[in-house]
Amino acid sequence: MSRALDVAQAALAASGEEGEAVALAERSGLARFAESEVHQPTLIDNVSVTLRVVRDGRAGVATTNRIDAEGLAELARRAAAAADSAPADPDFPGLAPAAAPRATEGFDEATAALGPDDQARLASAAIDAAGDIPVYGFFTSGDSELAVVSSTGISVDQRMTDAMALVIAADDGRSGYAEQTSWRLADVDPAAVGREAAEKAARTEAAVTIEPGHYRAVLEPYAFAELLESFAFDSFGALGVLEERGFLAGRLGERVFDEKISIADDALDAQGLPKAFDFEGTPKQRVPLIAGGEACGVVWDRATAARADGDSESTGHAPPPEERDFGPLPTALSVAGGEAASVEELAELVGDGIYITRLHYLGVVHPREGVITGMTRDGTFRIRDGKIAEPLVNLRFTVAVPEMLQEVPGLTRAVSLVNANDFYGARYPRGTLVPAIATTRFNISGAGSAPGI
Amino acid sequence: MRDLCHAAVDAALGAGAQYADARAVVRRNQAVATKNGRVEALTDSESEGIGVRVLVGGSWGFACDRRLSADGARDAALRACTFARAAGGRNNRPLAPVEPRTATYRTPVERDPFEVSLAEKVEHCLRADEALQGPHLVVRQAMVRAQREHKVLVSSEGTDVEQELTECGGGIDCAAVDDGVYQMRSYPSAHVGSSAQGGWEYVEGLGLAAEAPRVAEQAEALLRADVCPSVVTTLVLDADQMALQVHESVGHPTELDRVYGTEASYAGTSFLKAGDLGSLRYGSERMNITADPTTAGGLGTFGFDDEGVPAERQPVVEEGVLTGFLTSRETAARIGAGAGGSMRAESWNRMPLVRMTNLHLEPGEGTLEDLLAEVGDGVYMETNKSWSIDDKRLNFQFGTQIAWEIKDGKLGRMLRDATYTGITPEFWGKLDAVAGPGAWRLYGLTNCGKGQPGQSAHVSHGAAPARFRDVQVGVTA
Questions:
Q1: ipTM
Q2: What part of B 196-255 touches A (C-beta under 8 Å)?
Q3: Does B86 contact A168 at a Cβ distance shorter than 8 Å?
Q4: CB within 8 Å: B86 and A120
Q5: Distance of alpha carbon B96 from its chain centroid, rounded?
Q6: Mutation to test the B interface, candidates A7, A20, A26, A32, most B Cβ within 10 Å
Q7: What is the pTM of this model?
Q8: Which run of H or E residues covers position B14?
Q9: Per the CB < 8 Å rule, is A325 touching B35?
Q10: Residue B89: what pLDDT?
Q11: B2-224: CATH number
Q12: pLDDT tens digit string along A164-198?
């Protein structure tokens, strides 16, 4: 039995009422470096438990990390008091029924065993491999556990590992980026990450600017994943459809993107960071979102499924209790690869355009139209005559994602796992599986500064 | 908590640390949210633990433990030392001197927000929720929140301070949809309203229910409004959007850790260089920015920062010239100026970082109407909707929930989907008026992200409406 499951069971027992307990445990280390030196190494060890008590259709939630008997008794008292403070909710869907989640991968003993000496050593491997150019980034690994138990008979737990190396190689006028993420340390090569970032940086010297306008473009997986994550927040969750906020509202069943685009949320895929169940204990399902360019679904939790007309049901996408107001969201976006063997082949398909390594600080301008702004960084280049050519300064883009995906000359066959976790709050590893993509329309709305620190 | 912190510091020194500090924190949060007449969230959370930061052989190390016990304190200290040794630094990392203080600080509170029952909080939200009415509203929501943080900081240099910081806040939002157009309005601020240090009196003073009819009416009206045109024109921003403008284009770039690159791998760096201090022209002479952790009601108000440096008001930009950075003891020593005072950690399980405290645009003269009166053609924008800025904090693009055309000194037709863009020092150079103290408002936001692992800071900004000439508005896809 895991420590998270122990704690969840003890919390529910302390309550003795209709309810649900969700425990999240974390042991992690993050060796953050700057100017090629580890400067902010952080070790975290925590267990927290959230108890939802239900009294006559009224639900109250309390959370604590005091997991001794006294702390859990206080937790139960506060959750009950919260429930008593709420009016009855006629739309309350009830707690999830017991169901057996599918067995998933996602835990690796070698990754779980990493300690501070290892984390510092692996950070140093990334630093050393970059050579003379200063590097900024981190190596981190974590061992997390999620457990959900309920008075309806749910008793599930999953132990998860994740490891990640991230490097920005940069000095005055140059910068490059790389990252690798996996639930298996063996799939993460910090030295390779350091080399990739340094090699990319070396190609960005003497960047030039370009005029704003619409360009054909190639986006590396880092850039495509970040853009898709931002778009998904409004458009691939049921709440965005129910509240008519997202692009897919009113468009389910319609052809919305190029037929080469197929997107699913697939937390069961071992190429990603697998999850067996959500924060209500409902088993994860693979959910097709876009199939051959047609909008075919969004992800659901119990609350949104109850609000919808018809026969919608939870797809296993309930967020953590404290984030329920965002509604259910994809946590494992997966885009099908295409036919291109490489990004160079995508550049040939584009012919004349721009090449984008990654993005920075995205903001949703118009959620309903899927308009997003942000900056390119750490490796933006011109594409000329089908070849990746001179480096460009960082560029501001303002892009309607649906327009960008309307005409897609190609995608790479290979997909990459891009981290989607900034490690706020409790650790819950998440990633996006995407290929590189070519598009005929990417709107550059301004030019920024040269690459580099 | 104090004894545990001393024990942690002693354990760290015993394990070879040349410097150590320990923070024990007990934090409690309550949040109530309603949506469309039903309770959406009703949570009461607590978290506690101890975080120990050490310098060993020139390397920092940080470790934490949720257990507020002798074992937890000692284990955190020893693991922090282990990580610091493994990190293997090559710098000495001198720290700017701070006089060790033994002191306490407590937020003044009239009505303790944790003495206000959850039932009253629910009722407060439902009243505001109910007051948001309109035929096309698909979302009506209200929220209130409260937080108390009790913390003790002890350092190996003799600092021993205990603080209790209490804050609360609230807000309302609504969204209207018609014929494929989606529009939203918020009060007093977007992104979960506004918060302040203090008691429940702050939430009551917001008047959420009283403001709701105006907010709903504007959301409805936006459905029929024209799209903001794409043009270079005079731009007037309300105090709320100015607070965001200060945050993104002055607050973050003046964080000295960003200037030195130590945030490069996540939040980014800065267009400023250490040598710019005292000479760089940041904006026009109307631009005066002050960092003030002593501001009454500010979310960045404290007696001491998380390095034990006492709160002190400091100019950052004076008459358009950069005169100060936000610093830690380490970065202050590195630049040879300042004394730290901006180090804050999200909680017990995060390392302190250079963060904004309360960063204000100082008021000028007159009223919003006075600012508008001197505009022949322009756009007035209110309430942030979207924001994006580059890693050096130069190229930004912001959007607001609502705007109005300005014609001959008066507000004209309402505009939707308003955006504006600029380059930080050029934009601030176009500032030609800031409204006076009567229009100056304090906004508190709780979602300022930075660091790896990520930390959300609570910071406040005071600002008044301001006017900028020749700004690009109406960015399109």
A1: 0.95
A2: none
A3: no
A4: yes
A5: 25
A6: A32
A7: 0.96
A8: helix B2-14
A9: yes
A10: 73
A11: 3.30.2290.10
A12: 999 999 999 999 999 999 999 999 999 999 999 99
- pLDDT tens digits, one per residue of B59-109: 999 999 999 999 999 999 999 999 999 998 777 789 999 999 999 999 999
Domain locations in chain A as residue ranges: 3-202, 213-447
Q: Where are the domains of chain B?
A: 2-224, 227-473
CATH of domain A3-202: 3.30.2290.10
B89/A243 Cβ within 8 A: no
CA distance A197 to A135: 9
Contact A42 B44 (CB under 8 A): no
Question: What is the per-residue pLDDT across B379-433, written as a single tens digit (0 to 9) for each?
Answer: 999 999 999 999 999 999 999 999 999 999 999 999 999 999 999 999 999 999 9
CA distance B6 to chain A (A): 20
Query: For B204-233, what is each residue's pLDDT tens digit?
Result: 999 999 999 999 999 999 999 999 999 999
Residue A153, amino acid: G
